[in-house]
Automatic annotation (TrEMBL):
Keywords: Cell membrane, Membrane, Transmembrane, Transmembrane helix. The chain crosses the membrane at residues 12-30, 61-78, 99-118, 299-317, 329-349, 361-379. This is LPS export ABC transporter permease LptG. InterPro entries: LptG, LptG/LptF_permease. It is a multi-pass membrane protein. It is found in: Cell membrane. GO terms for cellular component: ATP-binding cassette (ABC) transporter complex. GO terms for biological process: lipopolysaccharide transport; transmembrane transport.
Length: 382
């Protein structure tokens, strides 16, 4: 880095850290107030509420980083404009294009930090936060259906070479990723019911195998009608054979990572888990739009930091007579909030209209990037 770039970086990073922790502290306070409604239920004490909210802080960092980068950069450039520092840089030969490239260089470490928080720290801390809450409340995760969650599981081939399609019903998913109240319905390649398996509980053993306990296995075998007699609708078509087993090892494409989508929302999952779950839904011919949109947003969202820095640079060209520093910072806050609101609103509109996920995820950032370049062109001319 050149000397002026180091100076810019030091000022922006110091202001960024201050703004980031100030906003995260504000969100921590509001989240803690929201958790107070649950305090007192079961073993959920105030200490658990503080721990749960603290574990959600990395995800808050991830959401706030672009806005914090915008506000901190606007504050730094507004101060430089008020003290005529940036004017001195311009007189010394700092062109707008070079200043923009320097600002992009400063923003790259922030993009890397955003990726690290969003892919490594945030998803893990969110899952841990949910487990702390569920264990304290003594409850389990389920869906709005009274029967639990239904998952389609397709195996490429059974031992006899025939494809198997399963519909798995999980009554409850425990915080330790174990499952209870399991019902499995198996169908052959002709979609005829061949097996009904009921288990009290199950735990994942790795390498695509689940260990089910308290298993009742009902096997259905087709009975061909006698050739010498006409077919009678009252004659049984299937023969049922029921076996009870204390344990049963089940080979399945389902993993705790796939089932863990019940613990956190798609927007807070890592790209790796989103990609695996999208593959699972695609293989089972299920709708993937919501998760594809979340995947592309996770992929492109860190680059919003660079967009925010581009938006902040025009404020360096505004002199003190154009407005005090506080007004400019307030304008930066409103600009950052408008980006977050527009990004969320456009995502919902894209889902309703089934627009392509890459376009839906990239359009808000591209619009604000164009606004930033338009603002730079305007201040450079005036």
């Amino acid at each position: 880095m050149r000397i002026y770039e180091k100076y810019f970086a030091r000022q922006v990073y110091l202001a960024f850290i201050f703004v980031l922790f100030a906003f995260s502290g504000l969100f921590f306070f509001f989240d803690l107030i929201n958790e107070l409604n649950t305090v007192g239920h079961g073993n959920y004490k105030f200490g658990y509420a503080v721990l749960r909210v603290a574990l959600q802080t990395p995800s808050r960092f991830y959401e706030i980083i672009p806005v914090a980068a915008l506000i901190s950069a606007i504050y730094v450039f507004s101060q430089m404009a008020a003290n005529s520092e940036y004017t001195i840089f311009r007189v010394s030969g700092l062109a707008t294009g070079r200043a923009l490239r320097s600002l992009i260089k400063i923003g790259i470490p922030l993009v890397i930090v955003t990726y690290f928080i969003g892919e490594v720290v945030g998803p893990y801390s969110d899952q841990l936060s949910e487990r702390v809450r569920l264990e304290a409340l003594g409850s389990a995760v389920s869906t709005n259906f009274q029967s639990g969650v239904w998952v389609k599981d397709t195996l490429s081939a059974r031992e006899d070479g025939e494809q198997v399609t399963r519909f798995v019903n999980v009554g409850e998913l425990r915080p330790d990723a174990s499952i209870t109240k399991v019902r499995i319905y198996e169908f052959d390649s002709q979609f005829r019911l061949t097996n009904v398996r009921i288990a009290q509980s199950g735990s994942y053993q790795g390498k695509g195998h689940w260990l089910l306990k308290g298993v009742t296995d009902t096997k259905l075998t087709a009975i061909p009608p006698p050739s010498a007699q006409p077919a009678d609708a009252l004659n049984p078509v299937y023969r049922a054979t029921q076996i009870t087993q204390p344990e049963y090892s089940l080979r399945s494409e389902l993993t705790p990572q796939i089932l863990s989508v019940l613990l956190i929302s798609p927007d807070r999952m890592s790209m790796f888990n989103l990609f695996r779950y999208i593959q699972h839904l695609t293989e089972n011919h299920q709708d993937t739009q919501r998760y594809e949109l979340a995947f592309w947003k996770k992929l492109l969202y860190p680059f919003a930091v660079l967009v925010m820095l581009v938006l902040s640079l025009p404020f360096a060209y505004l002199h003190t007579r154009a407005g005090v520093v506080g007004v400019k910072v307030f304008g930066g806050i409103m600009l950052g909030m408008s980006f977050q609101l527009f990004n969320t609103l456009f995502s919902h509109i894209g889902m309703l209209n089934t627009w392509p996920a890459p376009m839906t995820a990239a359009t808000p950032a591209l619009i604000y990037l164009v606004l930033g370049f338009v603002g730079l062109r305007w201040v450079d001319r005036h």
